[in-house]
Amino acid sequence: MGLSTHVLDTMHGTPAAGMAVALYATDGGSATLLKQLVLNKDGRNPDGLLLAGDALRRGCYRLVFDVAGYYAALGVELPQPNFLGKVSIDFGIAEPGQHYHVPLLVSPWSYSTYRGS
Known about the structure:
Largest sheet: 5 strands, mixed
Helix content: under 10%
Structural class: mainly beta
Low-confidence stretches: none
CATH superfamily: Transthyretin/hydroxyisourate hydrolase domain
Number of helices: 1
Distance between the termini: 12 Å
Radius of gyration: 14 Å
Number of domains: 1
């Protein structure tokens, strides 16, 4: 069905509008960039699904979220170097016919994720 993501800024209690995200396909030690995007006002990909249909294949992927860049753009003053720079989430797609949603809840000091619906 497809792959999606959604990012919520838990420091401000808002979607992470403007955060840069990159999607990679991974194979062992190599990674191939598939897509780069900036999250919309809802903290989602402005184009909808990251991958859909035949583009979503069984395999391993990585989402990289530019947390430090996001908070810097908001003018949040943080100690340097930032505790979190870029958050990478490696995950696998076992059933490409299912929907995979990878949400991120993030602050400058913590993050969590899960397989959403």
